[in-house]
Amino acid sequence: MATPASRSRLVSLGIVAAILMSILGIRMWFLQSVKLELNEDIVLSVRTRTIRLLPERGRIFDAKGRIVADNKRILTATIDRQVIKKDSNRAEVFARLSGPLQMTVEALERRYQDKRYGLLEALPLKEDISEETALYLSERVEDFPGIYVREEWRRNYPYGAIGSHVIGYMGAILESTLAYYKSLGYEPNERVGGYGIEQTYETILRGTPGYVRYEVDAQGRLLRQLERVEPVLGNDIQMSIDMQLQQFTEQALETQLVLRRRVEAGFNRLEDGTIDPLNPDPVLYKAPAGSAVVINHNTGQIVAMASYPRFDLRWFTGGVTKDKFAQIFPQTDDPDQSILVNRAVSGRYNLGSSFKPFVAYAALNSGQLVGGASYRYDDRGSYKLESIPDDRCQQGVKCVFRNAICRATGSPCRYGLVNVETALAVSSDAFFYKIGEQILTERGYQPILEQQVRLFGFGSPTNVDLPNEYAGTIPSKALKKRMADLGAISKESGRAYYVGDQILFAIGQGLLSASPLQVANAYAVFGNGGKLMQPHVVQAVLSPGTPDLKPGLADVAQASIIDRFDDDKPVSTVDMTGEKRDAIVRGLQRVITGPGVFYDFYHKTTGELLFKGYPYNVLPIAGKTGTAQGLNNLPWNDSSAFGAFSLNADYPYSSFAYLEKAGFGSQGAAPVVKCVFFALSGKYKMDPVEVAEPLNVSTSFAAPPVGLRNPSCLAGGRSDSRD
pTM of the predicted model, to two decimals? Predict the structure, then answer.
């Protein structure tokens, strides 16, 4: 008979046994259900394959709805890297794939070794395979384990080279930007916008990727689809660029550059002025490059932006070899030959006399001129610095600065009594030398001129929606020190800001630099009466899937607008009341129409002969020529500038052109802008813009030459001086 104590032990053992059985039961349930589910997930993950579905990229339209960047559906053969991980397996599969894909085994191996493709992602073997090849591979899964054909999209640029610097292209993710794009969820092997609008609006155009998940067997063969999430289309973009005006501006620019290359610039001369007998032939203008901008000065919308040399966007999508691409886009340190540079945005240029309207404003707005616009200066062809004593002039300090040479006399032009208006009309350097010196020396050496021209955006980026914008430079003590520290100028030169620096600044030379876009936007301030706008090449972001009106033309009227960039809200305002604008505009009008001034003889304005025959009654304009003196002050190194703005509210446009090493402003750049306003007036018929011919992959040119069918708008007389 059991004692109470033994009975108590038995009860305790029973309780323990029951607890152990309960724990065992829970454990068995966990193993059979929860862990089984986990194991199934692990097994399933091993036996599944996820294919990334890239969305169709948003399209790009011009201001009229022309489709300038479209998409083409392509098929890409990919393979599961796990299937070909072993060298022996890979060699066997690649040998079988070589025929259908028309690729060598070596080429397939190079693709496998490409570090852009991760070990866990499908390896793209060949893009843009035919439907027949895709069907062949899909029907023979036993022969081609791990092979999957996926749909992708390739960019198509139907207009080829027109607007190439603005539209941009697609390219591989660069090493320098890989971390950034990874943070946004991009795969390393994706293509992204590499230039222009494609780059600036990359995340807007891209859309949202989707995916499809499959169950596969041990050999990588697809068994069934488990899940599919469709990609979301990218947003569409409508440019402010009008492709017809864009084409015309490019034609005018290139035609003028070609014409300037046929013009004699002068002769190589010895120190005594005689022609070098070893180089007796005349030197022609090189005119290698240039740019032009046309902007709606009420809204900041850019309607045309040309840069030469230009390139065909299809070189980036045409599948050309590396050798061919290197031939078309050679690496060079010669800025004259740089193709992949939007000179309108990235150009770094002296402006010459095209900068004088802003100096005139600085003098008027700061109260520097006694009597304001009526102030007169007696221009006798030269100006001696008043702040430099005569004895210092005799010690090698330059203190006398001269006007440009008049062809009629062979000596510096003399204009007599000139005011703001007439000084601008004939481009009197002496008048602006005096302004430059006195606005510095009579105002306590304060940066008055610098502060005033900054009101027009000089020295700061415009924040245009394009990459690689150059901010420009304004001469100052700080700038000189920085340049000296960089070794660009001597340490001695960088010690101080001198009157001589200011003199050059006042005529748009020296350390002043700006991009053509900056200057066009600055001239726009005169055109719109005082509003500094932020320029845009995009006028609207549209919801995905804008319908087509007809092939090649989007029905933008039916598009859903997400964002617009066409308001008239300025970044800042500039006081243009009274004579601050009127005297300057009158002077710039006379540049176009005349009259000039009479002193000794009649001096024509710098544009008077060139613009003879221009339809001024339809589209009146005001503008200013400029010549940026080049290396060693040799005439064939002179670069040409011209800015102008409309005086007709129905045509609210401003334009600026810059032609490198093309001679005087009135001879080089001004004809281009003249043609632009001719076209805007409706008095010159522009060619219709048409889809480009098929890309000629045998050519060695980045873009085929273009030209005006009727270059008559470029014709006109020459000015009297080098301006």
Answer: 0.89
